[in-house]
């Protein structure tokens, strides 16, 4: 489970002064479900997810990830999380297997467990044909599979995906979408940020719309359609964002 | 503590594996130090030695100015084996400048026929700094020195006085110190300089690759999402940079030692002029020991500086000025007269450079060594502390 409690993040910029990237964001994401964080570029999605993955520290507020406080126990949080984004690339000079092994070891796995885990994941993702190939020689699809294997090696109960299909071709994107679905089926807590509405339709059980750093609306896709009397999620998104020209107003849909 | 060692070990092994697969790291850490000194010492040395030998063997073209009343002297000069006298009258300055002749000698009137006292000086015109011209001038000077000595000897004999009156006593210089000390004074500064510069250059590329390179390749976020603490991560990376620094320095000195040995063997065989350098292995090992905290300082400082950069290129522009900061104190230690004082023992880089020189000569004091080792360790420790702090700063890691 993920419980974000009034998460805020402010940065200091030399030219623009203090920037409020995320302001007082709260939500809950339960095991066996996918929470979709929807927003335009610069809305605060990546910052929110980076805080949940403890890559960034919140300025105010906190979150509990699998029961661990992100401020007090960031290392325990990271042990419980698999984080995948377009900014989490692979080490080009390591082979696919070495890459996954490295992260398995960093997650504290002993060599025997690591070996059986890698064999299992590589079989499942059909990666055996390129396990000894260097990451800089892999195709985009192979790289995606290796990244997935990297996030799965320690079998985390929580998965965080930050725009995971951005810039991928259809086949590579399908692999990722399928993988996210499998994570839900495996009972993991999944949070996903995106601005691709088709992905939201396909995957998300709960949606949070974020704009200018604030969570403007939250609910299931069905609840959203009912509330805004629109079938198209994109139209709903535009309606909400336009209506909240003033930031920091959160509408709860129940 | 066990977790710390385990995590640092995991990061270190991975960074080492990646470094060994990186052509640029292999070139800067292994290939350059191995090849640089054979090229510099053997290659350049052979060329210089060849030039000296050639200049020594080749007869020099010279011109005689005046001397019409000293035919015997002119005749002897013409007959000299290693001189070719150009008879054609011309502007000697132009000829020397254009290297058509190597030198000109002006024989004052009455040198051969005069009374033998109060001659004006014999003037030798030459191209200062030109090896062949200097050799020609030296040969002319030797000719007239011999002529003067013979003249004086003849006159003493005519007066029935012994020739020893000319040179009542000899002066001899005698070296009383060991070959190691001589080597320390002559090449100690160069070895110290080399070790220091190589500690720096060896650390440069890996430091950039492990920080700015990670940002450029978008792997920084990947590693930061793993459970390893940032302190463990930076210590693992630091150890890798330190390894590269020490390996480069060790290979450089080994390569220089082998190159010097080969060059000396050549000198002995060809009887070319040169120094006989003997440096103890113990002294070289001591130099490494003293350079260790300095390598720590360089590795941590380079990691910190490179971490600020967003790309490898930007890191290069930050790090390049550091080279000057290091080179100046390293060179200062080579200057004659600069010696270790308690105050200089606290100046980073300069202190190690001076101590290395002293270690090679064998004139060192344990309390000075302790002070330098301690002060440099403190600087190195502070640099590691800053590097760790920087790895915790989001504004540095995610600078946009």
Description of the structure:
The complex is a heterodimer of chains A (254) and B (400). Chain A has 254 residues and is of the alpha/beta class. Chain A contains nine helices and eleven strands. Chain A has a seven-stranded mixed sheet, sandwiched between helices. In chain A, a hairpin with a 3-residue loop joins strand 1 and strand 2. Chain A is globular and about 55 Å long. The C terminus of chain A is likely disordered. Chain B is mainly alpha-helical. Chain B has 14 helices and four strands. Chain B has a four-stranded mixed sheet. In chain B, helix 3 links the parallel strand 1 and strand 2. In chain B, helix 1 crosses helix 9 and helix 10 runs antiparallel to helix 11. Classes of the chains: A alpha/beta (254), B mainly alpha (400). At the A-B interface, helix 2, strand 6 and helix 3 of A face helix 1 and helix 8 of B.
Relative strand content of chain B: 5-15%
* CA gyration radius of chain B, whole angstroms: 31 Å
Main β-sheet description of chain B: 4 strands, mixed
Please state roughly what percent of the residues of chain A sit in beta strands, choosing from under 5%, 5-15%, 15-25%, 25-35%, 35-45% or over 45%. 25-35%
Q: How many beta-strand segments of chain B?
A: 4
Instruction: Estimate the helix proportion of chain B, in percent.
Output: 55-70%
Question: Whole-Å distance between the termini of chain B?
Answer: 35 Å
- Radius of gyration of chain A equals 18 Å
DSSP, total strands of chain A: 11
The shape of chain B, in one word, is elongated
């Amino acid at each position: 489970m993920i419980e974000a409690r009034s998460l805020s993040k402010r940065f200091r910029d030399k030219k623009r002064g203090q920037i409020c990237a995320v302001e007082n964001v709260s939500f809950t994401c339960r095991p066996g479900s996918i929470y979709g964080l929807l927003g335009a570029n610069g809305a605060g999605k990546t910052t929110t997810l980076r805080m949940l993955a403890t890559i960034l520290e919140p300025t105010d507020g906190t979150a509990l990830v699998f029961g661990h406080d992100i401020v007090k126990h960031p290392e325990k949080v990271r042990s419980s999380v698999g984080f995948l984004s377009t900014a989490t690339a692979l080490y080009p000079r390591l082979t696919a297997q070495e890459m996954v092994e490295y992260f398995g070891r960093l997650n504290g796995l002993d060599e025997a467990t690591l070996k059986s885990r890698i064999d299992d994941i590589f079989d499942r993702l059909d990666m055996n044909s390129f396990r000894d190939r260097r990451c800089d020689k892999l195709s985009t699809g192979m790289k995606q599979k290796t990244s997935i294997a990297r996030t799965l090696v320690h079998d985390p109960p929580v998965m965080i995906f930050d725009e995971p299909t951005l810039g991928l071709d259809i086949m590579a994107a399908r692999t990722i979408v399928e993988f996210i679905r499998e994570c839900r089926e495996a009972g993991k807590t999944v949070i996903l940020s995106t601005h691709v509405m088709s992905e939201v339709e396909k995957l998300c059980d709960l949606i949070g719309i974020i704009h200018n750093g604030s969570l403007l609306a939250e609910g299931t896709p069905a609840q959203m359609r009912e509330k805004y009397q629109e079938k198209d999620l994109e139209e709903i998104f535009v309606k909400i964002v336009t209506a909240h020209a003033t930031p920091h107003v959160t509408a709860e849909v129940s | 503590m066990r977790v710390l060692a385990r995590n640092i070990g995991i990061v270190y092994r991975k960074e080492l594996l990646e470094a060994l697969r990186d052509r640029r790291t292999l070139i800067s850490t292994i290939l350059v130090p191995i090849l640089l000194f054979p090229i510099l010492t053997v290659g350049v040395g052979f060329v210089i030695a060849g030039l000296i030998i050639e200049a020594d063997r080749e007869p020099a073209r010279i011109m005689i100015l005046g001397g019409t009343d000293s035919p015997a002297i002119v005749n002897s000069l013409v007959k000299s084996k290693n001189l070719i006298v150009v008879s054609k009258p011309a502007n000697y300055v132009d000829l020397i400048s254009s290297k058509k002749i190597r030198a000109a000698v002006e024989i004052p009137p009455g040198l051969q026929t005069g009374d033998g006292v109060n001659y004006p000086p014999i003037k030798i015109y030459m191209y200062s700094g030109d090896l062949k011209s200097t050799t020609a001038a030296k040969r002319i000077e030797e000719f007239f020195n011999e002529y003067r000595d013979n003249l004086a000897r003849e006159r003493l004999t005519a007066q029935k006085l012994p020739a020893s009156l000319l040179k009542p006593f000899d002066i001899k210089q005698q070296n009383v110190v060991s070959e190691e000390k001589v080597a320390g004074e002559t090449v100690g500064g160069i070895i110290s300089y080399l070790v220091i510069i190589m500690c720096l250059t060896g650390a440069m590329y890996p430091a950039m690759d492990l920080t700015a390179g990670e940002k450029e390749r978008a792997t920084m976020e990947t590693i930061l999402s793993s459970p390893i603490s940032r302190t463990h991560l930076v210590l693992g990376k630091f150890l890798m940079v330190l390894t590269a620094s020490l390996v480069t320095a060790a290979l450089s000195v080994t390569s220089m030692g082998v190159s010097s040995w080969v060059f000396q063997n050549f000198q002995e065989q060809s009887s070319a002029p040169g120094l006989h350098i003997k440096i103890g292995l113990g002294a070289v090992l001591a130099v490494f020991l003293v350079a260790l905290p300095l390598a720590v300082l360089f590795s941590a400082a380079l990691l910190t500086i490179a971490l600020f950069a967003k790309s490898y290129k930007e890191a290069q522009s930050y790090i390049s000025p550091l080279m000057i900061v290091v080179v100046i104190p390293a060179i200062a230690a080579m200057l004659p007269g600069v010696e270790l004082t308690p105050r200089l023992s606290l100046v980073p880089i300069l202190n190690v450079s001076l101590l290395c020189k002293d270690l090679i000569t064998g004139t060192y004091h344990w309390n000075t060594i302790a002070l330098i080792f301690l002060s440099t360790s403190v600087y190195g420790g502070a640099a590691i502390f800053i590097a760790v702090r920087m790895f915790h700063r989001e504004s540095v890691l995610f600078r946009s």
